[in-house]
Amino acid sequence: MTPPLAEPADPAESRTRTDVAADAIRTRIVLGHLPPGAKLRVDALAADLSVSRIPVREAFRELLAEGLVETYPMRGAVVAAIRREDVEDGYRLLETVEVMAVERVASSPDSAAVAARMRTHLDRLSTADAPADHLRTHRAFHFEVFAALGDSLLRRTAHTLWHACERYIIASAQGPRLHEAHTEHTDLVRYIEAGDVTGATAMTRMHVSHGRESALRAFGP
Predict the structure, then answer these.
(1) Topology annotation, domain 84-219
(2) Most buried of 16, 104, 152, 217, CB within 10 angstroms?
(3) What pTM was estimated for this model as a whole?
(4) What is the 3-state secondary structure (H, E, C) of 6-32?
């Protein structure tokens, strides 16, 4: 028998200054406000985010682990370049991890509750006009699946991998792909709600595959 899923924690209760700094810098990188190669200056970011230097330096470590930041002697921290092979590899790894997560969620007796939380974000996603709002709502939609995994290796891996790929995911969400992705999101929620493991995993593979193809087109040859 598949055990019940974990209740997701309230993010507002567990966010530290480092979490807030990392999310703010990550968002600027993903949305292109800090483009590849941009110098990341601790003092300027600390002042801008109204935090001390320590959370910013700790945030750099998180972003370095996610592949969003690179460090060089004499240059310090810069926004990492986008490499086509990383886009390809990132999506293939994300497909494996997301399929594992969705399979576990869809086979749980709590799958309908997870689907209900996902549907709330999906409804908001259709009206999220500002890029930052769309980014956070889309992330929240997928993170409901990860949150249900509890404090597990799979959840931690999924979070890190998602953040590593989010620049590609956002780049893929353009034009007709937006409508296609919304349809896939809707179908995914329906499969999870019904506890249909086969349908949920197949839809996840299709969703990630279509996103990969769109992202590779966006970044060119």
Answers:
(1) Four Helix Bundle (Hemerythrin (Met), subunit A) (1.20.120)
(2) 104
(3) 0.88
(4) CCCCCHHHHCCHHHHHHHHHHHHHHCC
